[in-house]
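User: Study the fold:
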Amino acid sequence: MKGRVLVAGFATRHIAQSAHAAGYEVFAVDHFCDQDLGFYAQEAMAFDELGDLFGAVAEMCERHRPDFIVPASGAEAIASRDLCGTPPEKVERFLDKLSTHQFFEETGIPTPGLLSLGEYPAMLKPRKGSGGWRNAIVHNDPEFLRWMEKYGDLPSLSEEVVHGVPSSVCCLATGSSAIAVAVNRQILRGTGDAAFGFSGSVTPFQSSAAPRMIGYAEHIAAESGCTGTIGVDFVAGDRIHAIEVNPRFQATLDTIEIATGFNLFSAHMDACHGSLPAGRPVCRQVAARTILFAERDIVVNRNMIRFSPLVADIPWPGTHFEEGQAIMSVYGWGAGYTEAMAMLDKHIRTVQQYMGGRLYG
């Protein structure tokens, strides 16, 4: 084994899987502690609220004395001499969407303009938080007031609406230099109150805009001061607009590794120690992942472990899900986009039939 690593955050299965494949002994602090996290982690500790996360990390560190601590979403502010990731003082800027917007402007990267109160249409979003679940386009004062009634206790910002394909670039950074690993197409919910919520990815994003996104992302990553893996979100339309910076492992990790065969955790550790790959990984196939959600309140009584590795983030039998909650991930892959999406659709139908049609992607 290369050492003991503690992965901590809201969802860690994808990172634990990559770390295990890279030859590390893995421990995890995770909100879900799904069945398949146990495939890769020697021990996993669950937490309920984000406020409980740091106490759980301290307890796991006392119990297992990890050599390295790797933060996932929700744990970016962890400070430790054993940290392998972007230091908290560098992370903080990118956890606030307003300061991220200012960073893009300072570095000359196109980004949606900020709007004043009463300017429409507008993209409203909380200044902090990931996943896009609370983002919404509003067209008038009544829609703005409804959004504020629902989320008004959160500091927010209003941006101009830009059109295009939601996408991202995963990079590796040393704090002063960077290289892009993969360009990804993001799958969003598309409807309902969480229309802009992340629900999957396709790697690679085969677009004429990809080279320009790579150029922007590598510049952003190098200038950010971040170390390890870092993701930059874009909207790729007639123009390319940078949207957010994720200074940690991203949810696209699975499709990147399936598409390229490249171990991102190993490369992350190398980047944290100042070493970048000699070249960008080549995509050998197209990989797709989507998250299935409960269409109504349900209890998952069947054991979905039988479908691994076609599915991941597998709930324990007897787990209750409220309407709209994420249940599990499903994958597809193939020589091209059409083949990958066809396999993904086939696997979704299989899982839905087994579950009695109570999921949607």
The first helix runs from residue 13 to 21. Residues 242 and 357 are 37 Å apart (CA to CA). The mean pLDDT is 95.
